[in-house]
Write a structure and sequence with these properties.
This protein is mainly β. It has a single domain, classed as RuvBL1 DNA/RNA binding domain (OB fold (Dihydrolipoamide Acetyltransferase, E2P), Beta Barrel). The chain is 8% helix and 52% strand. It has one helix spanning 48-54, and strands spanning 10-21, 30-37, 40-45, 63-73, 79-87. The chain has a five-stranded antiparallel sheet, covered by helices on one side. The longest helix is centred in the middle third of the chain and has 7 residues, at 48-54. The chain is globular. The mean pLDDT is 94. This is DUF5666 domain-containing protein.
């Protein structure tokens, strides 16, 4: 799974597969996206909030550009990653 470390980091590729992922830190089911990129096949998890924002827009065959926009602190001392996802 692709790790998101630096704000502004991006991943561009064609979505090959979308499948459920349940091994995250929040114990909720999110989507795992498998992408074909210039560097090869990569998988990434974006989280429930981003999944809701892109639902219906991203499916296998869609070209996407994903930009990591840093982390947002939650009230309970946890944090979530923020993403910007563009389709083309």
């Amino acid at each position: 799974i692709h790790s998101w470390d630096e704000e502004g980091q991006q991943l561009i590729g064609k979505v090959v597969e979308i499948m459920p992922f349940t091994h995250g830190k929040f114990d909720t089911e999110v989507q795992q996206y498998i992408l074909d990129t210039d560097e090869g096949r990569v998988s990434t998890v974006l989280g429930a909030a981003t999944d809701k924002q892109i639902a219906g827009k991203v499916k296998p065959g869609t070209m996407v550009a994903i930009v990591f926009r840093g982390q947002k602190q939650l009230a309970d001392s946890r944090s979530v990653n923020r993403f910007e996802v563009s389709t083309f």
